Amino acid sequence: MSKNVSKYIFFSGKGGVGKTSMASTTGVHYAEKGLKTIIVTTDPAANLADVFQQKIGHQVTPIDGVENLFAMEIDSKKATEEYKEQTLAPMREIFNEKMLAVVEEQLNSPCTEEMASFDRFIDFMDDDSYDVVIFDTAPTGHTIRLLELPVDWSKHIEESAEGSGQTCMGPVQNIQDSKEKYDRAIELLKDEKRTEFIFVMHPESSSIRETQRASKELREIGINTSSLIVNGIIPKEECNNPFFKKRGEMQQKHLKEIQQKIDLPIKKMELLDDEIKGLDILRNVADKLYKEAV
Ligand SMILES: Nc1ncnc2c1ncn2[C@@H]1O[C@H](COP(=O)(O)OP(=O)(O)OP(=O)(O)O)[C@@H](O)[C@H]1O
Ligand SMILES: [Mg+2]
């Protein structure tokens, strides 16, 4: 990974499979290689703060103890306020109170909130001050919905432009200005040289099905999955009692199935005897996960 073009990495997968853990581990890995790295989450139950054991919140925050590493937890309420303000500010100069009230009213729709978080998120794809931008996305369905939105928006803009000229996100002109930004972002999302989509999964049938489903959904919007992380594998040496032996065999069977069914590079991560939080553990996990990388 070179220092001159920024690279985007998305983590996807079923709830609880280890997306935040693997995103954080990956962040530590790249930052320690000297690349300026940020981890961004739009997960409303953001827990980057738990993982890094420090306050993060809705602003870019340097991570204590790791040079080059930053994190931000996008708060949809705050993102909405910022987005509304950004939309209204240029209009204050030219519109009267009455017209402003109309726009404000329109900005109070639920889709503004959805759009605002995505907008903040996309800002990082329009920002070349980081070498690596890591998105610890919300569970798959939500992620896909966010990714699909711009496609709908462009349709929405065209339809609205033909009608009243108003949309739920404010006047058409305003959205059209953002559209270029979204188009650039979508292009980047589809550019395999710039963007990686990593699926995290457990070696279990439900996880395999979900990964296949979600990766198909992405493919339908023109995005290829880059690689898989199979997380939570019970170490062989621990499979010496009947319970773990059986579970270990179940996992190995599914691991084989994954290798046969899904033609993608796979990284394996063992189940640890602790949660993945704190820099010591993150560094340790990063060494294991990226041991083959130079
Ligand atoms: N290999 C592992 N060994 C031990 N614990 C793990 C491992 N991977 C993840 N965990 C733990 O499992 C829990 C869930 O992981 P994590 O929060 O990363 O999942 P997630 O996919 O981000 O979940 P959500 O979908 O809720 O955002 C955390 O407590 C994490 O520390
Ligand atoms: Mg998470």
UniProtKB/TrEMBL annotation:
GO terms for molecular function: ATP binding; ATP hydrolysis activity. InterPro entries: ArsA/GET3_ATPase-like (IPR025723), ATPase_ArsA/GET3 (IPR016300), P-loop_NTPase (IPR027417). Pfam families: ArsA_ATPase (PF02374). CDD domains: ArsA. It comes from the Bacteria. Residues 7-291 form the ArsA/GET3 Anion-transporting ATPase-like domain. SUPFAM superfamilies: P-loop containing nucleoside triphosphate hydrolases (SSF52540). Belongs to the arsA ATPase family. This is Arsenite-activated ATPase ArsA.
